[in-house]
């Protein structure tokens, strides 16, 4: 049994997860991964050069998607259709239009009403309206329900309509983008939404790709196409794609493309961004297709004048849309709680109505039947009368279920959304980007966040790499110094005007280094910058006399740019030469070999021959791999190590530079091995790495560079504030582990005191825990697999850094290998075998779930978690696991299309309008321009919204209970006859006019402390996380408070009226006078009570409280006038009641006593609680003047981040894939003679372009 268990879940030790690769997605199986070849150099046209390979038929088992070029109707054939409803069929190929809106002109009214009546309260009031139309049970006029119901439905419908119009506009903006498509043999401008599978399209520089397309040709040599994939994976460095050689050769002219009729067979649409398998059939030959030939929707064309492609996947079938996940309907925690409370009120209402109906039945039997003067000419039995009265009380007590609650909540949320939109302190002026609440239903949830899941690239960082410092020959440079090496009185920027190639954006303050370079006295400094100018795989592009660099990684681009500004300018390259301007002198070096970077080597080298015949190897790489390969006699090693430690303390990304001279004989011998390894048919990468090792030894250390991966402004302070608010921050990124770790230190998520755990560390911990849980489950009869003891003992300052591969490994997400089909006899399984199989699957699922819960428990014990090299789906999975097992409120923030799934999965999604397009913003609930605004969104707007909503709900329930329960006490004195205690018009207008405005304004404007104090004391945020301000306990307290208030409102006037005589000698104790007294007392009490609950008084609040009372008197006197009774005698029956009753001093004294008995205990309780045990906000409010005075003098403290001497070095980030070395060496990036654009457009005349190097 134990062996069977082990085989189910133990990790494959032979294939440890690779930290450097992005793991497969849910669409992949393990055997597909195993069959994938290692990352080969981009010899993408090899298959086309071999006739034998060209004629090979690929395996078609997974290639069921067929596309015919220039044939829009090909996919409308019957075999490509699927059944959608009954006999109706539709093509399985999606159109290119995207749709995020919910309604159109026809569906708006029915769909919106259907959605609104899914709310229990709305349906309840509709039923109530129908009941009120039945004369036998109606105790209230129909308009008392219809008016509020129409108001609620109307306001909500208008809000939904406005939201959907915004979605329509955004969809139209994307769908109506223009693109050139072949129509009738010519390229014609077409809208994105009209593009179909099979269309051939032309894309120009700096435009987005509208669909997933197969690249056919481009303006670049060998039909190269440079793309930026920031929308897909968050990386801003350029990647290149290359067309098939056959399409590059034959599909350049417009008429050739119009006649192209190739058939593409490929995989079905899936979400794997870096995987594609397919075949092109054309001219009786087949050509293999892979991901390097596909341009995905969301990519941006860069440095390529134009390119052509055929659409393979459109719209919802594109990989980016497949990764975006489903749009989930999001509701707040308070929404759910509110619904449960409304259900509770339903139950209470039914029980009360049933009890009062039974009371009426009993009263009829004992008193009603024997009282001749009560005979109503209806011979109903007492039980039947009781049944009718049950429905009568349902109608009378309907105000216990507050219909205006929902519309009031919507108005408050709408107002809070506008406050976020209008907040100038969240406006990013550099890009003219205001904060935007894109949904109006989640504001109070912003005050309850437990976990934040953040992207890294473009969210925490600016995506800008800057050369900051360096160490050359043991001497550090980059600090602010003058030309003599002394500290200046004030920093001055270095003037690079002496360098005609300087780019003008580079900022540097060490004048001493510039003087050293100009003097040319130190040969090491010259070698240092020469190495930076030579040892790289950067491509150069000259346009309008300006030099532009295209690098495989942003770091490499920053280093070459730095060398350019210091006078060592990379000008051009050919297949085997590189031209440099060294302090104004042009020199060309022969490039003998480029030893490219990969994730195992963590370094790259270039071997060059100088004009004097000397052969030299230049190498740059991570300090860990460089120091192992240094010559034993490197005098400056210790000084360089010290410099690296200094750079590490400043969280700069470091890189070591070194060189060695190579003799001609040594190079010839090595080159022979190098050529053999280059043409190896199997294990080429391993063979090359082994050959590289032979030459990269006995290196002479030149120094080190330090690059800053620039954080956005205010990121460390924001993370610090949010941490103090007890919010945990997890970083989920597709970037490298070293880069993500480095940013963790930069933004102070990690410190030198942090104990860092990695995937391999926690894997053993989790495996042990799972085994213990299995054993415990096996030894006990009721198998609780839970163990609550913590994973870590001692220090709480721990962090977890885990890669996507380890996540799949630990969470048991690895796919099982497909078994190869063998021809064998199949026998039907016995019932016992089926049961065993089911039990095995069930047990495996239980262990998987337990392992996932263990992982979440372990991760949540860490102060910070960084998940790197994760796919968009894994990001969403991590968020979902925390939601599932921690029941915590989550927020996801990102700026790219790779963050969309995560943003949709979290309770709240925040999009940053950044470098990576608008995909994240379009899918988000809130958006703004910088990460630092998150602290204001949560600690100010979120906290205020939560406090306001909770105060609103507590008071709303209170005022409705105080209002409605008076009917119950009155029932004991009217034979449980369902007679109302108030006038009908008072019941209609109570929630609409007499008590709605003050509470609405508290829900919009109230604040316990100012925004500055909210930011200064993040601990105030904890109230929302713990649900302390609104829960079932608070609800029942409001119910009890309302019940006591209703008792006082009824019984004090009742006692005062029992045996009294008015000043005019008449008794004021008639029903109508009593109703006016009770109603007036109620209006005074509920409006003064909200005054006591208000923390932040403004003129508007004061006006609303006293204005509501004034409106009550105005309307009451009007409705009780003789004139309106004459016009509508049946609707207004309280003629003269208010003027007669309210002129009696006795009634005013009665009302004063009622108000005092209700409110004085509340005042006393508030005073005692603030004096004896004040809350944190009470204490801050009490000392607010002192704090605000300090605030004016207070400045942000200097960062407490001091890392001491540490062995940790911040790693240099090479590209996530191989660089452009193979491309350069193959010569395919070199511009050939190419017909100009007019020839490509179909002109018969051709031209020749001058050959130039790229």
UniProtKB/TrEMBL annotation:
Compositional bias segments (type: Polar residues): 35-49
Keyword Magnesium: yes
Residues involved in Mg(2+) binding: 455, 457, 895, 899
Domain P-type ATPase A, residue spans: 176-238
TM region positions: 143-162, 340-363, 390-409, 952-973, 985-1005, 1039-1059, 1071-1088, 1095-1115, 1145-1164
Enzyme class: translocase
Needed cofactors: Mg(2+)
Membrane topology per record: Multi-pass membrane protein
One GO location term (cellular component): endoplasmic reticulum
InterPro entries: ATPase_P-typ_cyto_dom_N, ATPase_P-typ_P_site, ATPase_P-typ_TM_dom_sf, ATPase_P-typ_transduc_dom_A_sf, ATPase_P-type_domA, HAD-like_sf, HAD_sf, P-type_ATPase_IV
Binding site for ATP: 455-457, 556, 597, 620, 653, 733-735, 869, 875, 898-899
PROSITE patterns with a match to the protein in the record: ATPASE_E1_E2
Region of interest (Disordered), residue spans: 1-59
Keywords: ATP-binding, Cell membrane, Cell projection, Endoplasmic reticulum, Golgi apparatus, Magnesium, Membrane, Metal-binding, Nucleotide-binding, Translocase, Transmembrane, Transmembrane helix
Cell location: Apical cell membrane; Cell membrane; Cell projection; Endoplasmic reticulum
Documented EC number(s): 7.6.2.1
Active site (catalytic residues): 455
GO molecular function annotations of the record: ATP binding; ATP hydrolysis activity; flippase activity; magnesium ion binding; phospholipid transporter activity
GO biological process: Golgi organization; phospholipid translocation
Catalysis: reaction(s): a 1,2-diacyl-sn-glycero-3-phospho-L-serine(out) + ATP + H2O = a 1,2-diacyl-sn-glycero-3-phospho-L-serine(in) + ADP + phosphate + H(+); ATP + H2O + phospholipidSide 1 = ADP + phosphate + phospholipidSide 2; a 1,2-diacyl-sn-glycero-3-phosphocholine(out) + ATP + H2O = a 1,2-diacyl-sn-glycero-3-phosphocholine(in) + ADP + phosphate + H(+)
Pfam families: Cation_ATPase (PF13246), E1-E2_ATPase (PF00122), PhoLip_ATPase_C (PF16212), PhoLip_ATPase_N (PF16209)
Family to which the UniProt record says this protein belongs: Belongs to the cation transport ATPase (P-type) (TC 3.A.3) family. Type IV subfamily.
NCBIfam families the record matches: ATPase-Plipid (TIGR01652), ATPase_P-type (TIGR01494)
Protein name: Phospholipid-transporting ATPase
Organism classification: Eukaryota, Metazoa, Chordata, Craniata, Vertebrata
């Amino acid at each position: 049994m134990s062996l069977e268990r082990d085989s189910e879940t133990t990790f494959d030790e032979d294939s440890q997860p690779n930290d450097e690769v992005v793991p497969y997605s849910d669409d992949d199986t393990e055997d597909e991964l195993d069959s994938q070849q290692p990352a080969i150099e981009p010899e993408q046209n090899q298959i086309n050069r071999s006739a034998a390979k060209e004629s090979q038929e690929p395996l078609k088992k997974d290639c069921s998607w067929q596309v015919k070029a220039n044939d829009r109707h090909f996919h409308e054939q019957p075999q490509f259709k699927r059944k959608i409803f009954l006999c109706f069929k539709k093509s399985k190929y999606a159109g290119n239009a995207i749709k995020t809106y919910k309604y159109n002109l026809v569906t708006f009214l029915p769909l919106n009403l259907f959605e609104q009546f899914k709310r229990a309260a709305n349906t309840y009031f509709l039923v109530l309206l129908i009941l009120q139309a039945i004369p036998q049970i109606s105790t209230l006029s129909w308009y008392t329900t219809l008016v509020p119901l129409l108001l609620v439905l109307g306001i909500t419908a208008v809000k939904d309509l406005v939201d959907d119009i915004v979605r329509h506009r955004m969809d139209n903006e994307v769908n109506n983008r223009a693109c050139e498509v072949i129509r009738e043999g010519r390229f014609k401008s077409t809208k994105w939404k009209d593009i179909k599978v099979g269309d051939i399209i032309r894309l120009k520089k700096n435009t987005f790709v509208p669909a997933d397309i197969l690249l056919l040709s481009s303006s670049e040599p060998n039909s190269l196409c440079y793309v930026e994939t920031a929308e897909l994976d968050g990386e801003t460095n350029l990647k290149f794609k290359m067309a098939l050689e056959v399409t590059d050769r034959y599909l350049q002219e417009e008429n050739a493309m119009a006649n192209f009729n190739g058939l593409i067979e490929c995989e079905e649409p899936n979400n794997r961004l870096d995987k594609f398998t397919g075949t092109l059939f054309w001219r009786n030959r087949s050509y293999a297709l892979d991901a390097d030939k596909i341009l995905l929707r969301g990519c941006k064309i860069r440095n390529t004048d134009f390119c052509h492609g055929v659409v393979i996947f459109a719209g919802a079938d594109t990989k980016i849309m497949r990764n975006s996940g489903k749009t989930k309907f999001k509701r707040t925690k308070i929404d759910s709680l509110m619904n449960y409370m409304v259900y509770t009120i339903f139950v209470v209402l039914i029980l009360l109505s049933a009890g009062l109906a039974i009371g009426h039945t009993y009263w009829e039997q004992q008193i009603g039947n024997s009282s001749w003067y009560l005979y109503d000419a209806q011979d109903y039995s007492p039980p039947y009368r009781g049944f009718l009265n049950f429905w009568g009380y349902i109608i009378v007590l309907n105000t216990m279920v507050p219909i205006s609650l929902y519309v009031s909540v919507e108005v408050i949320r709408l107002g809070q959304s506008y406050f976020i939109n209008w907040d100038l302190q969240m406006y990013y002026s550099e890009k003219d980007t205001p904060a935007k609440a894109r949904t109006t239903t989640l504001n109070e949830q912003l005050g309850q966040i437990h976990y934040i899941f953040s992207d890294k690239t473009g969210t925490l960082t600016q995506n800008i790499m800057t050369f900051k410092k360096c160490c050359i020959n043991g001497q550090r440079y980059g600090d602010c110094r003058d030309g003599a090496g002394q500290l200046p009185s004030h920093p001055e920027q270095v003037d690079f005007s002496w360098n005609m190639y300087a780019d003008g954006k580079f900022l540097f303050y060490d004048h001493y280094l510039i003087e050293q370079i100009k003097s040319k006295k130190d040969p090491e400094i010259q070698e240092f910058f020469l190495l930076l100018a030579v040892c790289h795989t950067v491509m150069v592009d000259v346009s309008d006399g300006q030099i532009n660099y295209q690098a495989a990684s942003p770091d490499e681009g920053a280093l070459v740019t730095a060398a350019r500004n210091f006078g060592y300018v990379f000008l051009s390259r050919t297949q085997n030469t590189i031209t440099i301007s060294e302090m104004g002198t042009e020199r060309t070096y022969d490039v003998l070999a480029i030893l490219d970077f990969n994730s195992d080597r963590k370094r790259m080298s270039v071997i060059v021959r100088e004009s004097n015949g000397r052969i030299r190897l230049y190498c740059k790489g991570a300090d860990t791999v460089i120091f192992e390969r240094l010559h034993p006699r490197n005098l400056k090693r210790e000084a360089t190590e010290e410099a690296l430690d200094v750079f590490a303390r400043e969280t700069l990304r470091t890189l070591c530079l070194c060189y060695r001279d190579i003799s001609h004989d040594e190079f010839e011998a090595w080159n022979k091995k190098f050529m053999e390894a280059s043409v190896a048919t199997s294990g080429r990468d391993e063979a090359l790495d082994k050959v590289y090792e032979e030459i990269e030894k006995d290196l002479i250390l030149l120094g080190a560079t330090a690059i800053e991966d620039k954080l956005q402004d205010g990121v460390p302070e924001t993370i610090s504030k949010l941490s103090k608010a007890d919010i945990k921050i997890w970083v989920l990124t597709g970037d490298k582990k070293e880069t993500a770790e480095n940013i963790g230190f930069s933004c102070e998520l990690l410190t030198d005191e942090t104990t860092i755990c990695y995937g391999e560390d926690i894997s053993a911990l989790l495996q042990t825990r799972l085994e213990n849980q299995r054993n415990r489950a096996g030894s006990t009869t009721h198998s609780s697999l839970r163990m609550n003891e913590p994973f870590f003992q001692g220090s709480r300052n721990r962090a977890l850094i885990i890669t996507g591969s380890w996540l799949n490994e630990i969470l048991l997400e690895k796919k099982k290998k497909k078994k190869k089909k063998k021809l064998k006899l199949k026998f039907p399984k016995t019932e016992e075998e089926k049961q065993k199989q089911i039990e095995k699957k069930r047990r495996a699922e239980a262990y998987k779930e337990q392992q996932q819960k263990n992982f979440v428990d372990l991760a949540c014990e860490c102060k910070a978690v960084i998940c790197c090299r994760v796919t968009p789906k894994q990001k969403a999975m991590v968020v979902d696991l925390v939601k599932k097992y921690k029941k915590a409120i989550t927020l996801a923030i990102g700026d790219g299309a790779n963050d969309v799934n995560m943003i949709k999965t979290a309770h709240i999604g925040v999009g940053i309008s950044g470098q990576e397009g608008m995909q994240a913003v379009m899918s988000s609930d809130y958006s703004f321009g910088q990460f630092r605004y998150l602290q204001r969104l949560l600690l100010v707007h979120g906290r205020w919204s939560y406090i306001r909503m909770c105060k609103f709900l507590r008071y709303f329930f209170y005022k409705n209970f105080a209002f409605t329960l008076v009917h119950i006490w009155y029932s004991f004195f009217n034979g449980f006859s369902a007679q109302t205690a108030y006038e009908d018009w008072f019941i209609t207008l109570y929630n609409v006019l007499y008590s709605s405005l003050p509470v609405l304004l508290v829900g919009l404007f109230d604040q316990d402390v100012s925004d500055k104090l909210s930011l200064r004391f993040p601990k105030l945020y904890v109230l929302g996380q713990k649900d302390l301000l609104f829960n079932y306990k608070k609800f029942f307290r409001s119910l009890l408070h309302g019940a006591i208030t209703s008792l006082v409102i009824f019984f004090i006037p009742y006692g005062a009226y029992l045996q009294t005589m008015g000043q005019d000698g008449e008794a004021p104790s008639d029903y109508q006078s009593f109703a006016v007294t009770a109603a007036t007392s109620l209006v005074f009490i509920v409006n003064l009570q909200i005054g006591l609950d208000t923390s932040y008084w403004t003129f508007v609040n004061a006006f609303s409280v006293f204005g509501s009372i004034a409106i009550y008197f105005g309307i009451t006197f009007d409705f009780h006038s003789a004139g309106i009774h004459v016009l509508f005698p049946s609707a207004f029956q309280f003629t003269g009641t208010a003027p007669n009753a309210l002129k009696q001093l006795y009634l005013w004294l009665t009302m004063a006593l009622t108000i005092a008995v209700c409110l004085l205990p509340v005042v006393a309780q508030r005073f005692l609680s603030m004096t004896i045990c004040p809350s944190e906000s009470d204490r801050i409010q009490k000392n607010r003047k002192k704090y605000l005075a300090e605030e004016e003098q207070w400045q942000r403290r200097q960062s407490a981040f001091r890392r001491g001497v540490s062995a940790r070095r911040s790693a240099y980030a090479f590209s996530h894939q191989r660089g452009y070395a193979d491309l350069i060496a193959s010569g395919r990036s070199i511009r050939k003679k190419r017909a100009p654009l007019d020839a490509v457009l179909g002109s018969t005349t051709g031209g020749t372009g001058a050959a130039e190097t790229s």
